[in-house]
Design a protein that fits this description.
The complex is a heterodimer of chains A (109) and B (113). Chain A contains no helices and eleven strands. Chain A is mostly beta strands and 109 residues long. By secondary structure, chain B is an all-beta fold. In chain B, a hairpin with an 8-residue loop joins strand 9 and strand 10. The chains are: A mainly beta (109), B mainly beta (113).
């Protein structure tokens, strides 16, 4: 079957760095997305990785290792507004997105 | 551009009632999707469409129907609502490339009592 694993919840301190991990087992791989979802709102796009390595976008970076079926999202200089759920999603061999359950990130002052 | 719009924002249905969730996008996207999201869970694909006149089932299609008569509109029909269909429903669209992000509507919160 297809499976994406993320921690259910993480807590971090304002101004710190946090790494959210995602491991996947899917039928084929055609890219991995990270989305941010604030409570009661729709998911919004953060990053896309299809090749191994690190993609950096301001305070957010995303890393992919296809051989290990592993990705992480790194958030630096955490702000209170970063409190949200972070969803990992993989495009499978049928070009459908398979979604993880999301990681709820709680930022404390 | 309004992006992806959904109506209604919130609805309460009685068991056995029917309703249509509306979804419209103005980005000329061929691909459109309907998801449901239960509390603390990821998104589950209900139906999707790769263009006008073409629809296909996703992971959890039972109890739902869709149509795609135009590029812009992708309504989701619930027949004989059941409490298990209580959820938040998101419509999304994307362009041609699978590397492109999906753009989501604001969601419809449905409660079936």
């Amino acid at each position: 079957g297809q499976n994406i694993d993320q921690p259910t919840e993480m807590t971090a301190t304002e101004g710190a760095i946090v790494q959210i991990n995602c491991t996947y087992q899917t039928s084929g791989f055609n890219g991995l997305f990270w989305y941010q979802q604030h409570a009661g709102e729709a998911p919004t796009f953060l990053s896309y990785n299809v090749l191994d390595g690190l993609e950096e976008k301001g305070r957010f970076s995303s890393f992919l290792s296809r051989s290990k079926g592993y990705s992480y999202l790194l958030l630096k200089e955490l702000q209170m507004k970063d409190s949200a759920s972070y969803l990992c999603a993989v495009t499978d061999s049928n070009y459908q997105l398979i979604w993880g359950a999301g990681t709820k990130l709680i930022i404390k002052p | 551009n309004a992006g992806v719009t959904q109506t209604p924002k919130f609805r309460i249905l009685k068991i056995g009632q029917s309703m249509t969730l509306q979804c419209t996008q103005d980005m000329n996207h061929n691909y459109m999707y309907w998801y449901r999201q239960d509390p603390g869970m990821g998104l589950k694909l209900i139906y999707y469409s790769v263009g006008a006149g073409i629809t296909d089932k996703g992971e959890v299609p039972n109890g739902y129907n869709v149509s795609r008569s135009t590029t812009e509109d992708f309504p989701l029909r619930l027949e004989l609502a059941a409490p298990s269909q209580t959820s938040v429903y998101f419509c999304a669209s994307r362009g041609t490339s699978e590397a492109e992000t999906q753009y989501f509507g604001p969601g419809t919160r449905l409660l079936v009592l």
